[in-house]
Amino acid sequence: MTTALVIGAGPAGLMAAEELAQAGLRVTIAEAKPSPARKFLMAGKSGLNLTKSEPVSAFLPQIHGPDRLRDIVAGFGPDAVQDWARALGQEVFTGSSGRVFPQVMKASPLLRVWLARLDALGVELLRNWRWVGVSQDGLQFDTPEGRQDLHPDVTVLALGGASWSRLGSDGKWVSILQENGVRCTAFQPANMGFHIAWSDHMERHFGCPVKPVRVTAGEQSVLGEFVLSSRGVEGSAIYAISRAVRDGAQLSLDLQPDRNVADVQARISRPRGKASWSNHLRKVLKLDPVKLALLQEFARPLPTDPAALASLIKGLPVPIQGPRPMDEAISTAGGLPFEALDDGLMISALPGVFACGEMLDWEAPTGGYLLTTCFATGRHAGRAAAEYALNESASG
């Protein structure tokens, strides 16, 4: 029987393994950690956001990568992901924001059923098998039994990016590929928070959500919420514009997103008598303590001119001091460039070796885009690898 090896047991790797097994290959998965899909499980602890229920025409522009990547995702988009989950017995629901979750919210029930289905297909999972190199003897692994070599007919790499290294995505695979003539793009954090040097006055607001708020950076703008922490700002609205901020755009906040600047100015212009500016703004604009604190933090002393103050409230500049460390980021940009891959995601310099998931050089915001793209690239690479292996077997 034609043999296939998948290195990495995250969602992209498991999807590739399923496609290979369904094509009739004998599949082995080598996972460096003691258990599979650790980052997937961590993401699902607060609610597994599988995808985003929206037209493909709106979904695809959120994925930053070449056109052929978006074509791959179009082949396994939001509707297909939901159907796939239902086929695993996991009913899904769509939240008010359009995000799609399993009814049970957690990742573990879906993963258990998925692993059972792979087991029924004959897929073997090798745990604590870390890929360490390529040699004439095959693919080399450090294992609990010492150094081992495998000689598959086809291989799919699904090794993740370079964040949350304790869960398995440590990016160490880059050196192996570079040693074998494959150029990789330097990693950058994606979907990350940003560091801010707060004054002592902000400490009592750490952990507080800021909502609703419109966050803008360059041409990117999103209505949502984020959280203040001792380290800076983080949360879904910040992640959504983090790519633009990372690349140099100014971060600004609209603290009154449901009012236009003229309305804000008119309210500020009302007589305030002996009230302090903070009490006046709290009264006429209903600004909560955390928004007032942000305004004072970044714009003190507040201008007394209503037009100038209204302009600040509608576009408060936030002086960030760079992104949080890459290992804290939800995902990473960089990795294996698409120029090094053929249309089936095979590495041109390593015939018979395919790649998928977050190890490829693309990025997307949270909200279902990340996971859907991992699923789609895993499916695509698995199908192409199966076709390649079977063709090679038939011709050999």
Q: What can you tell me about this protein's structure?
A:
- This protein is α+β, with helices and mostly antiparallel strands and 396 residues long.
- It has 2 domains: 3-189 and 327-395, FAD/NAD(P)-binding domain (3-Layer(bba) Sandwich); 194-318, no CATH class.
- The chain is built from 14 helices and 19 strands.
- The protein has helices at 11-22, 38-43, 56-59, 67-74, 78-87, 108-120, 173-179, 236-240, 242-246, 261-268, 277-285, 289-299, 306-314, 369-395, and strands at residues 3-7, 26-31, 51-52, 92-94, 99-102, 124-127, 130-135, 138-143, 146-150, 154-157, 185-190, 194-195, 209-217, 220-229, 232-234, 251-254, 316-318, 331-335, 353-355.
- A 6-stranded antiparallel beta sheet has the order 12-15-14-13-16-17.
- Helix 4 (67-74) packs across helix 14 (369-395).
- The radius of gyration is 24 Å and the shape is elongated.
- The chain starts with a strand and ends with a helix.
Mean pLDDT: 96
- What portion of residues belong to β-strands? 15-25%
Instruction: Determine the CATH superfamily of the largest domain.
Output: FAD/NAD(P)-binding domain
Structural class: alpha+beta
Kindly report the spatial arrangement of strands forming the biggest sheet: 12-15-14-13-16-17
Shape: elongated
Task: Compute the number of strand runs.
Answer: 19
CATH architecture of the largest domain: 3-Layer(bba) Sandwich
CATH top level assignment of the largest domain: Alpha Beta
Query: What's the total helix number?
Result: 14
* CA radius of gyration: 24 Å
Domain count: the total is 2
Low-confidence stretches: none
Fold-level CATH name of the largest domain: FAD/NAD(P)-binding domain
Q: Largest beta sheet, briefly?
A: 6 strands, antiparallel
Distance between the termini: 13 Å
